[in-house]
Amino acid sequence: MLLENNLKKYKETPEGFRKLVGLVGLLAIIIFAFIILNNIIIGENKIAESDKIVENEETIISSLPSGRLNFYESSDGYQLSSSEYEAVCKNTKIVAQRAMMGALITNINAQKLYTDNGNKIDKFSVNWDSTSNKCFAQYTIRAIQGTSDTITVSGQAKGFFNTGVDTRVYFIKNF
């Protein structure tokens, strides 16, 4: 009986109000679904990242100053030791746009594709090579439309930028 009365009242309400209630309900369902998915995905990523970071590396990175971190002698920035260089490389996930632009100087085709592409990068990675004890960064530029050209630029990551929150590749030597 209660359900019938509520249904009757709902049918008697103006159509505009019913559409608004339906829209608000749909919006609430969508937001709730994204909150649940976001918690599931972020939870998995936090577990995977925490397995990769060793406590010793965390203390090394937290002790480094903010700003430029170099693996070469320079008057600008802090010079990294070999162990600091490895720790920073293993925990860096971002390649800064400055590093990309600097690495493009020697590759005219990549530079043209990058500027024609609206400065968009398809994907990038930073990896530690334990055989040569070097950090390598690479990124792929793909044309947005027109052609299916892709160019991969790679080189040794020799400079980083510590923001205090994360570290980013700041200089790539690819020549």
Provide the residue-averaged pLDDT.
76
Quaternary: single chain
How far apart the termini lie comes to 80 Å
In terms of DSSP E residues, the strand content is 25-35%
Helicity, as a percent range: 40-55%
Tally of DSSP helical segments: 6
Strand and helix order: HHHEEHEHHEEEE
Q: Stretches where pLDDT falls below 50 for ≥5 residues?
A: none
Whole-angstrom Rg? 25 Å
Q: Can you summarize the main beta sheet?
A: 7 strands, mixed
Count all strands and give the number.
7
Question: What is the total domain count?
Answer: 2
- What overall form do the CA principal axes indicate? elongated
Estimated structural class: alpha/beta
How would you describe this structure to a colleague?
The protein has 175 residues and is an alpha/beta fold. The chain has helices at 2-12, 15-52, 55-63, 82-90, 97-104, 108-116, and strands spanning 67-70, 78-79, 94-95, 123-129, 134-142, 150-162, 167-173. The protein is built from 6 helices and 7 strands. Strands 1, 2, 3, 4, 5, 6 and 7 form a 7-stranded mixed sheet that branches. The longest helix is centred in the N-terminal third of the chain and has 38 residues, at 15-52.
